[in-house]
Amino acid sequence: MVLLVISKRQLACVAALALLPAITWADHRVGVFGPSAGGPVVTPTANTLPAGNWSLGIYNEYRRFDTPNRNALQAQAAAEGGHVHSLRDLWSPSLAVSYGLDDRVTLAAALPYVKRSGLQEAHVHASGTTGVHELGDSAGLGDISLTGYWRFWENRRGSAAALSFGTFLPTGATDERDEEGERLGTEHQPGSGAWRPFAGVTVSRELAALGWHAHLRYTWATEGAQETDLGDRIDYGVALSYRLTGTTEQPAPHEHGPGASDHHHQDDEHLQWDLLLELNGEYQRPQRIGGMAEGGSERIVYLAPGLRATGNSGWTAALSLGVPVSQQAGAGHIETDWRALATAGYAF
Fold first, then answer.
1. I need a labelling partner for 320 at 20 to 30 A (CA). Which of 32, 183, 188, 301 fits?
2. For residue 17, what pLDDT band results from cuts at 50, 70 and 90?
């Protein structure tokens, strides 16, 4: 049987990458939810960092959209009788720092950079004709997030539960402009200009090499830049993780100098691999501008296989590829083709 063996140093490193809270609407970034040890990339586990441990992590998201050509975009605008926005892709790297306040409570902060490429807008003129405007790209620092994670229950059979809570701060850029110098809508800005608190719950069960995890989180949106409320949202997911046999490289017998005898060193690096499979869902309420609802609600469900590598020296890396198995884009928006997530981190 494969044994699930996780050192405090490994736990701190993996948890650093999973402390960024997730938030997505329309073409916004995903992020990740909570600390995990040998667990999924997006779905959190109920693990927390050991007391006194620090860690740094980089989290990268790339999302590709099903961008229509100009004729299709005009047809969609005509059919919906309003504005339709599209873009080619979104890239968002984030830097996260986390600290184990005690063995059950972890605190974290994250700073994202958000870039949207190939923004376009189609709308219906008063004459009944439709036009398409090339808006260009939007890039800048996003909203800083602060997160607390509390593991409030566990038992000796490998089950645990945790609460997460925190908020996004209105620190991101909200003044990006299109190619004609007009200010872009808030949904296309790197930041929101709004406080957005969130709260969630996670349950986990780990037995030897197999773990399963489930979570639910609610995010409240408040009015921010340009009188825009980006809409409340619900995130949920289930995931499986399976620990493969770790690989240990053992140096051959050798001598260090005169009089030294042949010997073996202790394991210098024990590399552990985890297979991951996630089902992540997002439900987004319509945004409101000046108190008026814009478009409709949105939903998407991703099936995402992945792989994680963890080393004894305090580093970890993971990759996940998500493919939508069900989605409904809100009015004025387009669908997602696929999503890739990559993480790397180090504990100290």
1. 188
2. low
